[in-house]
Amino acid sequence: MRELRSSAFWRAVLAEFLGSLLYALLGLGASLRWAPGPPNVLGAALAFGLAQATLVQALGHVSGGHINPAITLALLLASQLSLPRALGYLLAQLLGALAGAGVLYGVTPAPARGTLGLSAVSRSWGESGGA
Question: Which of these, 50, 81, 83, 114, has the minimum number of CB atoms within 10 Å of its CB?
Fold first, then answer.
C-alpha cells in the first residue's frame, strides 16, 4: 500500500491513461473511411503500429509503456508487476481508451464516423452469396 502514496505511481498511471488515449485516438482515427472507396487496411495497420512504437518510446521510461491491458495482465501473471500497480494501469488504460474514442467521436464529422473503427460485416456480403 506504500506504493499508492508515491508520486511515481500516480505519474505512471497518468502516463498509461495518456498513452491509451492517444493510441485509441490515432489508431481509430486512421481506420476511419475519410474518402469513398475500399478501406485502407495498410494505413490503419501502420498507424496502430507506429502509434504503439512512438508511445512506448515516449512513455516507456515513466510506466513501462504497456498501453495495452493485455500486456499489463501478462506482466501481472508473470509476477513482474504488483497487484495495485496492475489495477491502476488497467483502470487508466480502459478509461484512456474510452476518452480517446470519445474525443475522436466528438471531432469527427458524422459522415466520416461510420462504425468508428468497429469491424462489421458488409451488407453486400450476404447478398453476393459469400466470398
Answer: 83
